[in-house]
Amino acid sequence: MRLLVLGGTKNLGRHVVEAALADGHEVTLFNRGQTNPGLFPSVRRIVGDRAAPEALAAGEWDGVIDMSGLLVRDVTLSASVLRDRCGHYTYMSSIAVYASKTTPDMTESAPLLPWPAGAPEDHFTMDLYGPSKVRNESLLTATFGDRTAAVRSGFVVGPYNPDFGNWGWALAHNLPMECAARPDQPIQYIDARDLAAFLLHLTANRIPGPFNAVGPTRTMTHLAAAWRTAVPDPPPMDWSPAVDRFHLPHDGSNDGTFQLNNTHARTSGLNLRPDQQTAHDYVTWVKTGNVPPPPPH
């Protein structure tokens, strides 16, 4: 497959490119060339900005994976250029698209956030994050029809991705794992490698539709126990840290966000590795001298 990746040199994106190369796909990267420019020296690169994607008009690809589509203006422009130049367009969306934050077991058909009247499409504010993802999904569907997929995820965990609550760093340095969220707080995440494989699977097989690409719902207590198996004799868990790294409300007002139904994704090819493996691999990655990047937003 001739694959175009928009972004592709940090966090989840580098896992997408690594997986694509391992599967023998011909990869082209389109980005500004500012983040990790030395990665993937054998890969073709087109240097450019999302706000001016005209450089893409000279190529054709079997599939596109959009890792950097945030501003509605930028996604509109790339969709317009690539509409007749690619077979399938897979968009990295977010679980932030849903209108309800309290309803458990939401499927992909649950109500989505509306676009605020008069909101700008050409610059980013955090209150527009969810609505922007919704609007981008909609415009891509309008442009590509059943040649597009939207992949909705939340916490993405694994090497080269932000540390899940600082747990990996703590375990790697024999420090207490901290969690200011409720012990019974429902939580979901996905390993970056599993998410990358799913993005590639949807694109290579031209599978359309939105997908909740999340792991099973755990409680913080259950998940912490799984992570603590990554090292022998970890220090006691700290449930009252001075810093709340998860920023999850205690009143249940966000519980539904992390109880999404992932059946559609699982039956469409999403495979999930055990929490213990994710924890072990992340701790090992930190112990080998790597420093987790900051959260993306």
Structure write-up:
By secondary structure, the protein is an alpha/beta fold. It has a single domain (2-287), classed as Rossmann fold (3-Layer(aba) Sandwich). It has helices spanning 11-22, 72-82, 129-144, 167-172, 192-204, 220-228, 263-267, 275-287, and strands at residues 2-6, 26-31, 44-47, 61-66, 86-92, 148-152, 155-157, 186-187, 189-191, 209-212, 218-219. The chain has a 7-stranded parallel β-sheet, sandwiched between helices. Helix 3 (129-144) links the parallel strand 5 and strand 6 (148-152). Helix 1 (11-22) crosses helix 5, helix 2 (72-82) runs parallel beside helix 3 and helix 6 (220-228) crosses helix 8 (275-287).
The span between the termini is 32 Å
Question: How many strands, which pairing sense, and closed or not: the largest β-sheet?
Answer: 7 strands, parallel
What is the helix/strand order?
EHEEEHEHEEHEEHEEHHH
Q: What overall geometry do the principal axes of the alpha carbons give?
A: globular
Mean pLDDT: 96
Fraction in beta strands:
15-25%
CATH superfamily: NAD(P)-binding Rossmann-like Domain
SS element count, helices: 8
Radius of gyration: 19 Å
What is the count of β-strands? Answer: 11
Structural class: alpha/beta
Proper CATH architecture: 3-Layer(aba) Sandwich
Helix content: 25-40%
